[in-house]
Amino acid sequence: MISIRNLLLAGILSLFAQAATISVVKAAETIAAKLSVENQQDLKRVETFLNGIETARAGFLQVSSNGGVATGKLLLSRPGKMRFEYDPPTPIMIIADGTFLIYIDKELKSPIHSWLSTSLVGFLVEEDIKLNGDVTVTKFEKGSNILRVTLARTKDPEQGSITMIFSDQPLALRQWIITDQQEIRTTVTLSNLESGIKIDPKLFIFKRPPEEQ
């Protein structure tokens, strides 16, 4: 029987997983044809909003469609830095140090390193966030006081997609969803988001315990 911990671990690892190949170019052409002037302005507002976040702190609830559930705290410092601290009993931490996205299981001795620049979640901490070029908008939805923007890496679409969900008026990031190759969806919902705060830069440095060096 698959343990709850294994289900949770699979959900967290979906941040690093590759997704089914999609035709990003075709999706981009379809989206571009459907976007109204108002939609284009909305996407520009999203860009401006994300670029306006230099530092942030929030609580999060992570739910994976395979059954994994976890809570924790997120720290963000642009460019390039993120830290996911998972609450006990989850023995997990994820750190983006500007170069790597590092997955740490405190019960294991071998952290997993992935290039931040090729990860989906790394988009949120880029120095100059743009909704074109390195990423492609594959879907855009606007509802009552809500915006949903789905992105894929232009040169590596098989990596998967990230959907950012914003409340509107005022614009605020509430949630993102990463979808992997097996169609497993990992949803991260933010709470008590604070921006423009001071964060110790040492929190984004991964150091192995002395016994592991």
Question: Could you give the topology of this structure?
Answer:
Blueprint: H1 4-13, H2 24-34, H3 37-51, E1 55-64, E2 69-77, E3 81-86, E4 92-97, E5 100-105, E6 112-115, E7 135-143, E8 146-153, E9 161-167, E10 172-179, E11 185-195
Antiparallel strand pairs: 1-2, 1-11, 2-3, 3-4, 4-5, 5-6, 7-8, 8-9, 9-10, 10-11
- Rg, nearest Å: 17 Å
Q: Portion of residues in helices?
A: 10-25%
Q: Class by helix and strand content?
A: alpha+beta
Number-wise, the strands total: 11
How would you sum up this structure in a few lines?
By secondary structure, the protein is α+β, with helices and mostly antiparallel strands. It is built from three helices and eleven strands, in the order αααβββββββββββ.
Give structural notes.
- The chain is α+β, with helices and mostly antiparallel strands and 213 residues long.
- The chain has one domain (4-192): Clam (outer membrane lipoprotein receptor (LolB), chain A).
- The chain has helices at 4-13, 24-34, 37-51, and strands at 55-64, 69-77, 81-86, 92-97, 100-105, 112-115, 135-143, 146-153, 161-167, 172-179, 185-195.
- The chain has an eleven-stranded antiparallel sheet with strand order 6-5-4-3-2-1-11-10-9-8-7.
- Strand 10 and strand 11 (185-195) form a beta hairpin.
- The longest helix has 15 residues, at 37-51.
- It starts with a helix and ends in an 18-residue tail after the last strand.
